[in-house]
Amino acid sequence: MKARALFAAIITFLSISFLPAAEFTQEENQAIQDILSFRLSLRSYSTNDEVIEKVHSYRQEKLSSIENFSEEARLVCLNMLATAEYNAFYAKDMQAPEMEGILRPQYEKIREFQEKTPAEEQNPWFVFTSADIINSMMQFLKQGEAISLGLKEKKEYAIALAAQPEHAFGNMLSGYWYYYAPGIGGGSKKKARLFFANALEYAANDYERFYGNINLSQMNFEDKNKEEAARLLDEAEKILPGTRHVAFIRKINEMGYSAFDYNQNSTRKKLDERLAEEK
Q: In terms of C-beta density within 10 A (0-12 exposed, 13-18 middle, 19 or more buried), how is residue 57 classed?
């Protein structure tokens, strides 16, 4: 089955009838784009501590404006900033005690909004940025609750992408879901590759192009297409030259691992030990 046909089949199979999702104002949509640009800029800093400081400063600077948004748009913006802060702490120490404190307050606000708003009426940006928080929060939840949320998330992705199939950020998150979900739970690296390809094709800003190139690069690396993997990393680096993130991915690729491998705790621990020995 051709990639486009397979993508359409995934969405058709998983989606259900939906009402139009809430639209955001021009100001709210611009704030989302500004945060994406800010999050990309964080890759230019040399330490995670700098990133954490920048997120705190940006949140403080923008909070009064964000508080004037609709509840859903406000949650989207705060989801994205919480995720940025969490990612910096996780990059610094995957057992950082601050992480749950960053995620849980936002997680509880998300769940409260979800309970009163049918999935079909949620804006895709809310669906996808909330999933980013929930995925990270799962490590702090009971196993049964985490599994239930994961299956619910899959359906919500499908509804949101049925409404906006060219949502690059949504395709990227869907790719992560299919990549990391166990096969018995519906995971599929073949489907993940398709979503990552769509994410890059539909990318509309530098953030989406940067990560679109990286994700597809790493799928090619795992498929042994190393020349294409390197070319896509070169494309990412053109967007943000000299970033330590791309340099780090090149390093672990040289060691025989993908960025997706590194994002799994057991592999990361082993690779961190090897990297420390090489210093």
A: exposed
How many C-beta atoms surround the C-beta of residue 35 within 10 A?
24
Task: Answer whether 49's CB lies under 8 Å from 4's CB.
Answer: no
Full-model pTM: 0.89
3-state helix, strand, coil in the chain (%, to 5): 80, 0, 20
User: Which residue shows structure tokens 């049918």?
Assistant: 118
Note the maximum CA span of the chain. Answer: 55
Beta strands in 65-205 (DSSP E): none
Per-position pLDDT tens, the chain of length 279? 444 444 444 444 444 334 456 799 999 999 999 999 999 999 999 999 999 999 999 999 999 999 999 999 999 999 999 999 999 999 999 999 999 999 999 999 999 999 999 988 999 999 999 999 999 999 999 888 888 888 888 888 899 999 999 999 999 999 999 999 888 888 999 999 999 999 999 999 999 999 999 999 999 999 999 999 999 999 999 999 989 999 999 999 999 999 999 998 889 989 988 888 886
